[in-house]
Amino acid sequence: MLGNTRSSDNPKLPLLGSSDDDISNSHGEEEERRWWRKWRKVLDVEEAKDQVLFSLPMILTNVSYYAIPLVSVMFAGHLGELQLAGATLANSWAYVTGFAFTQGLSGALETLCGQGFGAKQYRMLGIYMQTSCIISCFFSIIISFLWFYTEPILILLHQDPNISEQAGLYMKYLIPGLFAFGFLQNFLRFLQTQSIVMPLVFFSALPLAIHFGIAYSLVHWTSLGFGGAPLACSISLWISTLSLAIYILCSKKTGRTWEGFSFESFSVLLTNLKVAMPSAAMVCLEFWSFEILVFLAGLMPNSELSTSLIAMCVNTQAICYNFSYGLSAAASTRVSNELGAGTIDRAKNAMAVTLKLVVLLALIIDLALAFGHNIWASFFTDSREIVQEFASMTPFIVISIIFDAMQAILSGVARGCGWQHLAVWVNLATFYFIGMPLALLFGFKLNLYVKGLWIGLVCGLASQACSLFLITLRRKWTKMDVAMSSEIDGPCPI
User: Fold this and answer.
1) Residue 301 pLDDT
2) CA nearest 258: which of 200, 191, 334?
3) Strands (E), 293-388
4) Residue 365 · residue 320 · CB < 8 Å
5) What is the Cα–Cα distance from 374 to 388, expressed in whole angstroms?
6) How confident is the model over 98-123, as a mean pLDDT?
7) Least confident window among 157-161, 333-337, 423-427, 434-438
8) pLDDT for position 485
9) In angstroms, what CA-CA distances link 274 with 113, 343, 378, 422, 489?
C-alpha cells in the first residue's frame, strides 16, 4: 500500500515525484523576475504603456488627417504625369506656406494648455483655444491671398510654366481647406493636452473614409476633373472640423475646460502670440527646407521626373513623420503636464521613455519601406520609371526617417517646456547653414541630382537631432512663467 501511496497524499513525505518540476518552475520564475527587472531598467514599462495607449490614437489621427490631402494628390496624379507634378508641387507648397504654419501656431497650446492642465487651471484651456483660433483665422486670411497667386509666384521662382499652371489651379480650390485645417489643429491640441485622444480616431477616420468617395466623385463624375481633387480635400477637412467642434461643445469630458465663448480670449492674445510665433517658425523652418528641395528639383534636367520624385520622397517622409508625431504629442503632453504640476523628474523620465519607443517605431517603418517601396510608389503614379527611381532613393529615405523620428520627440519636448525660441535657432542653423549648402553641393556640383539633394537633407536632420538632444540635456527644466502669469489668475472650476 505504501508503494502505491502518492507523496501528495501524505504531507509528511517529501514531494519526490514533482521535486524536479518544482525546482525547474522555481528557476523559471526567478529567471522571469530577473528578466523583468533588467527590462524595467531599460524601459519604464508603466510609463511606456501609458504613452503607447496615448500615442496609438494620436498616430491614427495624424495619419488620417495627413492622408486627406495626400489622397487628393493621388487621385489627381493618376490623371497624368503633368497633373501628378502639379498636384505634388501644390501639396508641398500648401504645407510649407499654410498647413505647416497653422499647425505650428497651434503648438502654443501644447505649452499653454499642457502646463495649465497640469497646474489644474482648467478654465484657461478653453480661453487659450479661442485665442489660438482667432490667430489662426487671421493668418489664414493673409495666406489665402498668397495661395490665390500661386501660379505667378511659382513661375517667378523658375518653376516649369505648365506645372505651375496646374499647381495654381489646385491651390485655388484648396483655400477653403486652409481655414478648416487651422481650426482643426487647435481643436486637436486642446483635446490632446487633456489626454482626450480616443474620440479623435473616430473624428479623423470617418472623414478620411468619406473623402475617398468625395474625391472620386468630383474627379471622375463632374466637369471639375483635376480641380475636383483639392475641392474634395477642402470639403473633407471642413467635415472633420465641424464634427470635432460639435464634440467639444457637447462632450462632458470637456465640461470643465470649455465654458463657452468669452471676450477674455482677447486679453491673452499677446501671451499666446509670444509662444505661437516661435512655435510656427520652428515648424516652418523645417518644412521650408523640404520645399526648397522640391524647387531645386525643378531646376534639374527632366524637371517633371525630378519634381515628382523628390515630392514623393517628401510626402513619404511626411507620412512617416506623422507616425512619429503621435509619440511626439505624447512627449509634449506628458512633459507639459508634469512641468505644470511641478514634477520635473517625471517629465524627464517621460521624455526618455518616448525616445526609446520612437527608435523602435522608426525601425519598424524602415523595414516596411525597405520591402514595400515599389507598392508605396505605385500609389502615387503609374510610371514605371518613377517607381524605379524611387526604389534607388529608399536607402537614403530610411536613414532620414530615423533622424526625423528622434527630432520629432525632442521638438515635442521643446514645445512642452516652452523652448520654441531655442528650437527656432537650431532649425535655422542645421537646415540652412548645414543641410541646404550640402544639398546644393551634392546635387549640382557633384552631379548626384535628386540623391544629392536628399543626402544634404539627411545631414541637416542629423545635425538638428543632435543639437536638440544637447539642449535637452543641458537646459534647466522649469515651467513657463507665462503660463502661470498674473493675467490668467482667477477661479478655476475643478
Assistant:
1) 80
2) 191
3) none
4) yes
5) 8
6) 90
7) 157-161
8) 43
9) 14, 25, 44, 13, 18
Helix (H) or strand (E) holding 482, with range, is none
Q: With CA atoms as reference, report the closest residue to 279 among 132, 421, 459, 427.
A: 421
Place of cell 474620440: 199
Domain range annotation of the chain: 45-477
pLDDT at residue 373, as a whole number: 81
Residue of 470, 478, 475, 474 lying closest to 406 (CA atoms): 470
User: How sure is the predictor about 381, in pLDDT bands with cuts at 50, 70 and 90?
Assistant: confident
**pLDDT (tens digit per residue) in 28-65:** 555 545 544 554 556 677 888 888 889 889 888 988 88
Q: CA triplet 215, 220, 225: central angle to 5 degrees?
A: 85
Residue with cell 466623385: 217
Handedness of CA 30, 31, 32, 33 (dihedral sign): positive
All 3 cell numbers of residue 182? 487651422
Decide: residue 37, CB within 10 A, 0-12 exposed, 13-18 middle, 19+ buried: exposed
Which of these, 331, 289, 347, lies nearest to 415 by C-alpha position? 331
CA dist 90 and 132 (Å) reads: 26
The 10 Å Cβ neighbour count of residue 205 is 16
59: its cell numbers: 498616430
Contact in structure between 87 and 72 (CB atoms under 8 Å) = yes
